[in-house]
Amino acid sequence: LKIKIDRNLGPSIVRQIYQAISDKIMSDLLPNGSKLPSIRSLAKDLDISLMTVVAAYNLLEEDRYIIQKHGKGSFVHRASSNQSKIEDKHLWQHSYHDYLPRAPFSNNLIQYKHVIPLSISTIYPGLYPNKFIENQLRKVTENDPRILTTYGDIQGDLELRKEYTSYLKQFGIITEPNQVLVVNGSQQAIDLVARTFVGPGDYVIMEGPTYPAAIDVFRARGASVLQVPLDDEGIRVDILEELVEKYNPKLIYLVPNLHNPTGIITSNLRKKIILEIVSDKNCMILEDDPWSELYFDTLPQPLTSLKSMDKKGKVIYIKGSKVLVPGCRIGVLVAEGSIFQKILSAKGYSDLGSPLLSQKILQSVLSSEHLNQYLEKLRIALSIRKDYLLEKLTNSNIPSISWTKPNGGINIWVTLPEWVDTEALLQTAILEGVSFLPSAYFFANEPIRNQLRISFASVDELSLKLGTEKLIHCLKRI
Amino acid sequence: LKIKIDRNLGPSIVRQIYQAISDKIMSDLLPNGSKLPSIRSLAKDLDISLMTVVAAYNLLEEDRYIIQKHGKGSFVHRASSNQSKIEDKHLWQHSYHDYLPRAPFSNNLIQYKHVIPLSISTIYPGLYPNKFIENQLRKVTENDPRILTTYGDIQGDLELRKEYTSYLKQFGIITEPNQVLVVNGSQQAIDLVARTFVGPGDYVIMEGPTYPAAIDVFRARGASVLQVPLDDEGIRVDILEELVEKYNPKLIYLVPNLHNPTGIITSNLRKKIILEIVSDKNCMILEDDPWSELYFDTLPQPLTSLKSMDKKGKVIYIKGSKVLVPGCRIGVLVAEGSIFQKILSAKGYSDLGSPLLSQKILQSVLSSEHLNQYLEKLRIALSIRKDYLLEKLTNSNIPSISWTKPNGGINIWVTLPEWVDTEALLQTAILEGVSFLPSAYFFANEPIRNQLRISFASVDELSLKLGTEKLIHCLKRI
């Protein structure tokens, strides 16, 4: 059992222990019946007082995660869990030490079938031109069936890298194919950067709230995550500057355009200030740009990336696989100099390169004359969904609730009265048959608890309608 | 600049420093002009004497990796390098600390075009039934074009996991779909296991020689790698047992069937002893099974895996993407209990799941009635190539040279007289227009230098013929 205590963080040490253990229990990393360390030994390991551990264990017992048996110790005991019993022959495995950080929150949601997943930030397959993509695929394999059995380069297919180079110009990015790395989606890109440059004791600064799976990756590297709040113009640069001066962070992870989950667009002035702040610091920025293609008609054109203003090679730019052909899981990373070479090495360690077939399909979609038309249709469909959801929320007349009106992307960010805990609300919603993502998931440390993210793109239209109704029903009952 | 010194390892500390720095220079992670740490500061950092650093730097200067400028310091200076100058604006990047281990040897080989790559352990695309695979692909997408735009499960497509469950029976593996994880090739599987269970200070035991990219992954986690020699029956279990007792390793990585690079098959008795050795230890075995389908007619049937004898969940079994549809880069991992759950979490952190399209293609190939026929043809083609290469070697009458006669796989392992350094020989071979993999690449620490691996599957038949001639020409000139 690995618990990391950080005395500099907001939450109390009791809360940190509680969180670490309950996370592991909820995701079944500590199955029912597992014995927890004794109070004495945990206190010694973490160099904290016995009373602190007692308080944490009492809290865990109160919330029905564990039971404490006098003279025998403390055991995981989830009454509500319907997991099948772990067979005896694997019991030894529980003492096999691992290096995993907090259990991924998202695992908690996977179990629920029969629930309309407005929690998931993906785009419904029916919104893509599947027949068109299939035709592109056919051309690719007819042209050269051997790509099905050929290993590609570690860096990625050269022709795809050329296509990306010209595709990225619309976001202001001027690069060349040898500075482009093909990756398996943005998740892998974040992971490659983290494993190359982030290690134990390093500080990583992120927006708060931010993309949950990125928090998990940095935590997994042993880094301390600091979060900076946002206002209407993006990340609060005054706080960012203070934190950079004080902590000398290794990396700043940002989603400057159509931020996940809030949809906020960082102003160009803020973007310049961000670059100024890190200009003479030994610190890189990781710019995640998941869906700047998906702007609505309230915006005139694609958004300018932070990378486009980067003159010194301080920004690593990544774009994932959500918008183009999601089934291929192909994304892209752009960087310069030795930073790029090192990330390329990490890609080699990680998987020796992305699958060639997926790359070729994406290349052929990127080079097609129909691409713009296809993106335009997607933007319109998403904009209609967004308007639908906003209208339903407005008409519901729920008191003390507010929400964002995003200019693009696939999410709406809702704020409830301060006394509402959306993690608890999620349990009610799941019983109703709908899910969302509670704000706590988007924070590394002491979270804001009264917000939630609704994704309006992940399901078919009927499910969106049903899900919205169920959700509004839940919100009304608060 | 990160250098790790291990006082318990064979090579001297001078040699370890030399190796660490020259590796980084060769792979351009330390470009020309980079300033090395001062002798005083490096000695202090590593807690070693000034004279040790002086000796290492002198050696590096002698071998023309660096120049030492009196009063100014030591600088990387590769006269032979024709790298373009790194632009000034990225110079700051050289002081940005990274967590990379030794530079991947393989990068050194990628640069050489016009060289017949008998160094690469892949199978030539022309040996696969590409049209058949293309047809399967067509069926998949016609059936449901939406798989092109759908995210799959983190664990992998359920139908593919079912197919794998029945495919793996031939290797004696009885499992079920919920114990099967779909991965992006064996490289990712090794990486997932390493990041979940291997950390700084842990010991990992491997065969010596072994698969080079696996060494890199464990090193990248900060582990100490110990290697155990092989004899005709597989890993030397007497030495293995001693090391397990002494070092309490976290993981044992093995290729028990058709070992890479030697082709050795671990006997069933040895397999039982290996399991006995770890039976009551807090230690897992990672069994890599790249190509046990590729047995020649000297063997009666597929080989039995170590996993098939595992009664306690001690073995994590992985099978990569080389034999089935390499362009898809889809492989599989089998494990049980909490070990499996933890690796599944790591897969989520790493990339949120493998691409669905690739999985569906592989599923359709696995379920096809033509699969056996296709594998039989591949075995015959490879066996003919192996015989060709062995015959050429025999007829060349080179004195003091021996080689393996593999019962399967795609490599031959050649032993030259003890005074030959095959890393130096590779430079000659590249000038001749052919490459192989020198034995030093297969060792984590002080290597055996007089062996080399020839891959007979990676190129078309004409290139194999030409490459073999060029290679024999080189060997004759020793």
Description:
The structure is a homodimer of 478-residue chains. With 478 residues, chain A is an alpha/beta fold. In chain A, 39% of the residues lie in helices and 13% in strands. Chain A contains 15 helices and 16 strands. Chain A has helices at 13-26, 39-46, 50-62, 107-110, 130-143, 158-167, 185-197, 212-220, 237-247, 268-278, 337-351, 356-366, 371-396, 422-432, 461-476, and strands at residues 66-69, 73-76, 116-117, 180-183, 203-208, 224-231, 234-235, 251-254, 284-288, 315-319, 331-334, 402-403, 411-415, 434-435, 437-438, 451-455. An eight-stranded mixed beta sheet of chain A has the order 4-11-10-9-8-5-6-7, sandwiched between helices. In chain A, β6 (224-231) and β7 form a beta hairpin. In chain A, α5 (130-143) packs across α12. Chains A and B meet through α5, α7, α8, α11 and α12 of A and α5, α7, α8, α11 and α12 of B.
Number of helices of chain A: 15
Helix content of chain A: 25-40%
Cα gyration radius of chain A (Å): 23 Å
Global morphology of chain A: globular
Q: What integer is the average pLDDT of chain A?
A: 88
Describe the structure concisely:
Chain A is of the alpha/beta class and about 475 residues long. Chain A is built from 15 helices and 16 strands.
Give me some keywords for this one.
homodimer; 478 residues; alpha/beta; eight-stranded mixed sheet; four-stranded antiparallel sheet; 15 helices; 13% strand; globular
